Backbone:
């Protein structure tokens, strides 16, 4: 009888992909740990829970088609894609997102990253499927294979008594961890710049180009100056933007606040508006921040439906009061800014 | 013919002006931005979500910390919009106030830490480009924006918590009547 059990592996904090269900079979008994020598604790945990055999894939060659899953510590180029491509369920202990030349093979169904020991959990499925698929004739040889494998592992472990992680390996792994964390951080950053920041810059630059070149700026100065150029005007802007029926409409993506920010910025640059008013202006153009997002934000905070019903009007009403107060505080706080 | 040449030059000129602004933004802001955001992203990964959660959940009891340090930490480490998930540490009647306080910080934080809300940079950056054009440094504006915002999110938190409590009480009265 097979005594394998399935585990579910979920992604760790800031990880990607999954959850994967890992179930070793007689044909695929190995939990391969390819983490620079030694058996990674995550591999040991999966092996213990499933009844599979943890193998150090760094010193022992394991055929990919005998692996129930593979544990890697790849910060993202090579190994991260190799095993998904070979059709092996891949558990990455680093919090990498798909990358590298084999990125197309990395899917949520075959890859999970950022995994720690406590991301591995037993599921209730017993390995019934595995038993039934293995035919009676095959069963014997499979059983032999398993015994053989156990012996192999045992001999390997006795060859290297208690050698799980040596000092050099620890240092190496630490360095690898630091480097791959920075690498991943850089990848996230460039991604963000390309997807969010550059497109908005293109939009803003075009807008500024049109304003500066056509002379619309002069016309706008006449409208913006009396509003954004003194405290009373700023207060009026903040009161209007915070009107409870208007604020949820002005919110989405902060696009309006951003465009108005650019317009005010242009006028500050042209000298129409004194620079110290930048501070109160930042609050005056933005009392509606997040007013469109209240129900979603509260849901993210796991609020009950009754709380959301009360919360939406509560936030909108609060803004009507605190919006103008913010402008006054910022106005006072701007004394001495850019005046010396 | 001359008329059309002028028209074409004017048309192109408009976008040349835009292009100049674009290059200014790209060479002036993006390099620093990329290095800064990379460093902060790496720092956040090193610290790890669990540790932040453990620490942040300790700041919720005190009303001052609840609407200052707690939303600032959540915005810095979880960034917009995941920051609002920290509402789960609070009782129901404080959740709207926390949301209000946290979301009000999602632009002021970008002056110093643009990673927290990189897709909405131009609320601050739009106004900031004007300051840069005047040849003034942005430091004083960014730091004041950050500090003033902390005072304001505290006020917002307290006011919203009060309004929420009032409305909840009124609902209970209505339900009882």
Residues:
């Amino acid at each position: 009888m097979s005594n394998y059990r399935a585990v579910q592996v979920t992604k760790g904090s800031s990880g990607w992909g999954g959850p994967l269900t890992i179930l070793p079979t007689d044909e695929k008994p190995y939990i391969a740990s390819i983490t620079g020598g030694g058996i990674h604790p995550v591999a040991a945990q999966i092996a213990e829970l499933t009844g599979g055999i943890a193998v150090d894939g760094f010193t022992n060659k394991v055929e990919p088609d005998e692996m129930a899953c593979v544990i890697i510590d790849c910060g993202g180029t090579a190994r991260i894609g190799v095993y998904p491509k070979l059709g092996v369920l891949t558990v990455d202990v680093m919090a990498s997102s798909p990358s590298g030349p084999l990125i197309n093979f990395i899917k949520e169904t075959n890859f999970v990253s950022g995994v720690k020991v406590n991301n591995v959990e037993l599921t209730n499925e017993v390995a019934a499927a595995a038993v039934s698929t293995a035919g009676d004739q095959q069963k014997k040889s499979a059983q032999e294979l398993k015994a053989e494998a156990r012996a192999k592992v045992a001999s390997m472990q006795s060859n290297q008594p208690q050698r799980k992680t040596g000092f050099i390996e620890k240092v190496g792994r630490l360095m690898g961890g630091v480097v791959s964390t920075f690498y991943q951080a850089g990848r996230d950053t460039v991604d963000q710049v390309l997807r969010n920041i550059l497109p908005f810059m293109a939009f803003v630059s075009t807008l500024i180009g049109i304003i500066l070149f056509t002379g619309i700026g002069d016309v706008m100065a006449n409208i913006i100056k009396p509003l954004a150029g003194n405290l009373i005007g700023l207060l009026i802007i903040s009161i209007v933007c915070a009107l409870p029926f208007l604020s949820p409409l002005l919110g989405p993506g902060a696009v309006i606040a951003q465009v108005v920010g650019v317009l005010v910025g242009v006028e500050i640059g042209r000298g129409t508006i004194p620079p110290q008013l930048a501070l109160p202006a930042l609050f005056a153009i933005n009392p509606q921040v997040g007013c469109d997002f209240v129900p979603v934000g509260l849901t993210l905070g796991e609020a009950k439906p009754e709380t959301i019903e009360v919360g939406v009007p509560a936030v909108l009403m609060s803004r009507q009061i605190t919006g103008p107060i913010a402008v006054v505080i910022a106005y006072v706080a701007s004394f001495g800014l850019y005046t010396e | 013919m001359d008329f059309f040449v002028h028209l074409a030059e004017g048309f192109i000129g408009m976008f040349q002006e835009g292009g100049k602004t674009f290059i200014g933004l790209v060479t002036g802001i993006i390099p620093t931005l990329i290095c800064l955001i990379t460093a902060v992203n790496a720092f956040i990964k090193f610290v790890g979500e669990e540790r932040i959660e453990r620490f942040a959940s300790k700041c919720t009891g005190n009303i001052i910390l609840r609407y200052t340090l707690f939303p600032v930490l959540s915005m810095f480490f979880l960034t917009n919009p995941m920051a609002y998930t920290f509402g789960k540490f609070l009782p129901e009647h404080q959740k709207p106030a926390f949301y209000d306080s946290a979301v009000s910080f999602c632009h002021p934080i970008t002056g110093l830490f643009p990673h927290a809300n990189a897709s909405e940079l131009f609320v601050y950056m739009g106004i900031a480009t004007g300051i840069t054009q005047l040849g003034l440094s942005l430091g004083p504006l960014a730091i004041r924006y950050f500090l003033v915002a902390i005072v304001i999110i505290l006020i917002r938190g307290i006011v919203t918590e009060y309004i929420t409590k009032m409305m909840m009480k009124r609902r209970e009265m209505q339900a009882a009547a």
User: Anything to note?
Assistant: Strands of chain A lie at 5-9, 20-22, 30-34, 53-56, 67-72, 90-92, 111-113, 120-126.
